[in-house]
Predict the structure.
Amino acid sequence: MSDTSNGFSRRDALKAGAVLAAPFIARFSRAAGPMAGKRMGYSMSFATIEWLVTQRRGVEDSARTAGFDLVFADARDNPAKQVRDLEDMITQKCDVILISTYYAEAITPAVKMINEAGIPIVVLSSTLKGDISWTCHLSTDTLGTARSAGEYFVKTLGGKGRVVQIEGKPGSVVNQLRGSGWNEVIAKNPGIEVVKHVVANYERMQALRHMEDILRSTQGISAVYCHNDEMALGAIKAVREAGRSKELWLSGYDGIQADALQAVYAGDLRATWQYLPFGAEAVDAAVKILQGAKVPKEIVFPSPLITRDNVAEYYDAKERKVRPFKSQIKA
Amino acid sequence: MRDSRIVAFGLRWSHLLALVGLVIVASVLSPYFLEFRNIMNVLRGASVLCIVAVGMTLVILSRGVDLSVGSILGLSGATFALLAATDVRLAIVAALAVGVAVGLVNGLLVAWLGLQPFIATVATLIAARGLVYIVSDGANIIVRDPPSWFEAIGSGHLGPVPVPIFIAAAVVLALWFLLAHTAFGRHVYAVGANEEAARLYGVKVRLIKVLVYCISGLLAALASIIQVSRLTVAEPNAGQLIELDAIAATLIGGTTFDGGIGGVPGTVLGVLILAVLGNLLNLKGVSPFVQMVLQGGIIVIAVVVSELRQRRR
């Protein structure tokens, strides 16, 4: 994404992605039930954090609507198992395979086999790597969003402050980009210092424990940059218990779960960038591929900033319900 | 001879010395370490592991092992969070019952079917985690608007001291008493030291085995209630790998896999050593990956030391 340097800004990229995606999605929401008799594989490296659960539910619901016979596998955070899962999907003669992975490099051998078998691949979020190919990759402009998160920090802090960074799972491409894009911008602002940097594996409890320790050892923190909302919610708890909510603010990513959006609504979470789970969109892409239609190889979705000002568009505070995701892409 | 007496003293009190040494190092290296709030954070953070590890100690003393504690923690937590919307008291009882039930399965598999504890509890580890994903659909189960007394279990204070510390202390005292001063405790040691001899002595070996797994399950469930109360959410992956930390703490504390040797006080020291080390490294900003390597090293050292201690006897 060095596009920014030659005048093609992130916003343009996002717009392009949205434009590409909008007609494509609108067309597919009408194409219900045509996939009867077709088998779709859906392999995840890890299925049990909120964002991925939302993705899985999206895939399951849409696959049912489309009439797919869905073969689902969760590698339980084990790259070797994901390789076996993918091999099994070839054996089961899947017509299309959706891949969601934290282990782009590790699963390359299996992806090669899928290529050799001529089965189309739809990649969700984290990209694949190595000498392999795929048919369609749905992603958010993670790096661009991370850069704009950096800019949000610079602007909101007035170019000055001490910040803490809480990272997700090492090995996840998305996690790395959320770090590098943000760091890139922060590094250009010498007034902003990253005083602590920890890994909490996208988990709430780990973030809570780390934040407790950080709060003991570090005074005058201005803001906390968390690589997802789960960790932000854990950190918020630690900050509140330490009685330091007035001193600092926090940001997260994903903007899809009710308690995170509730925290934005309540003013506990200053900002989050919504990260579409792609479940329904991926199934739409699979349908289109199997119908022989042309699908863009890369579809980039926008990742809007959610703050207290616009949280109502994403979250119904009265019902405590998250508003449906797909409608936002169409809009 | 004086030298050997010093060595003997060092071996006898090695855990305590290690903890004291670590605390001294920590307070020199970090000015924040000895702050009251930090100490309370460390102890509160350690309380969940402490409760689980004490149960683990009981099982290991009987020459078994309970690898399913993490899954029990997850399953009891999910059970609790699901029922909390109806009645929090009922939810607590149900969560504890689930813990005992999984423990009972472990105990029956080991004592009556004669499965290796490792195999039996790996089976329940997998099955119970599967149940967690089934009941939660792999998602967080949020406890909506819990009564304040419930949140106090995990987040509250009695005076300046967080509630989980009292709960962990009570568990430690109860289990210590049970092991050191009751017939049940003597029987656990006897079964661990020599099952055949214990049987000849009239110890109900099977019953003792079932009971230790039930207690371990109960304690894992208790730990889950503290954790869910603190986060007001039951995470589907909660407790994963805590069995390894619990075993590590037990080994560092001088309880051995050969059964019959060790006890609760050592395990508490083991938990504290791990907690203080983690806290110190966090305060100093040491990478979490380096922390794992150090933790592995400490286990090796601890096991070697307790081996030396055995040999001198």
